[in-house]
Design a protein that fits this description.
The protein is α+β, with helices and mostly antiparallel strands. It has helices at 3-10, 24-34, 54-63, 69-72, 84-92, 95-101, 111-134, 149-156, 175-179, 202-208, 228-237, 240-257; strands at 46-50, 75-82, 138-142, 162-171. Helix 2 crosses helix 7. The chain is globular and about 65 Å long.
């Protein structure tokens, strides 16, 4: 098999790491690959914060939905959607004066700019994930970094036009993690369409979740759960961390677009 395809097809999230530091040469290769990620207009609308301070990792393990393995990860990178760097460039380049001369208001970063920067940051993050896999490193995305914006803003001194879009943990996977089975994905016919979007019917969902053979476990605090859809709603979509994420992102958006 093509070695690149082999890396792509075998990758899985790793949350348990060997007690082993990542060599500086490996980190340099990882960074080189990441910085070659595709980017809109070659603007590189993202920044990467390497979280090295153990106290910061310990805090993230709590603020990112209480996930202790974050504190134990040998390498943690915070990916920011970043328009602050370009906006500061515009200011020091005299764009305000240029706009005044042309009698037009200077445009500030808005919603479209934020979404584009998020795309840039996530593309860079995924490039890092694949590069890490090829170097023998495991990785895990932490979307919960979008929660608790006030805390993270202060922790990392985030300026207005930055958005903490994801956290990535890296490390050498334990033997148990290497042996762990890969999670199943939905069949492509429920994901890939031709020419137009297709809404799924009940029978489609029944087939889509057909690989879930065992009964859906029920937690006492959730009440009765009878199918995968109810389980996902209770444990993910309506869970406290998800509600907090929406609140936090709403605050970030308001801060970003406030005139």
């Amino acid at each position: 098999m093509n070695p690149v395809m082999e890396v792509l097809l075998k990758r899985k999230s790793v949350r348990a790491y060997e007690d082993k530091e990542i060599d500086g040469g490996i980190k340099e290769q990882l960074l080189q690959a990441t910085l070659r990620a595709p980017t809109a207009g070659n603007m590189m609308l993202y920044s990467i914060v390497e979280v090295e301070d153990q106290s910061l990792k310990d805090t993230l393990a709590k603020t990112c939905d209480n996930q202790p393995f974050i504190a134990r990860a040998p390498l943690v990178w915070l990916f920011l959607a970043d328009y602050q760097r370009w906006f500061d460039t515009f200011i020091v380049s005299g764009v305000e004066q240029l706009c005044a001369q042309n009698n037009v208001p200077m445009r500030k970063p808005q919603e479209g700019d934020l979404f584009l920067a998020c795309c840039d940051a996530l593309i860079a993050a995924q490039t890092a994930v694949i590069a890490a896999e090829s170097l023998g490193l495991g990785s895990c995305y932490i979307g919960d970094i979008m929660e608790n914006y006030e805390v993270h803003k202060e922790m990392f001194e985030l300026p207005r036009y930055t958005f903490p879009i994801c956290l990535l943990c890296f490390g050498y996977p334990t033997g148990q993690q290497k042996k762990r089975e890969m999670t199943r994905r939905f069949d492509r016919k429920f994901i890939v369409f031709k020419d137009k979007y297709k809404r799924l019917e009940k029978e489609d969902f029944d087939e889509m979740f057909g690989h879930v053979q065992k009964p859906v476990p029920t937690r006492k605090e959730e009440g009765a759960i009878f199918n995968p859809g109810q389980a996902m709603y209770q444990r993910k979509f309506s869970a406290a961390f998800s509600v907090e994420m929406s609140r936090s992102v709403r605050l970030i958006l308001a801060n970003w677009i406030d005139e």
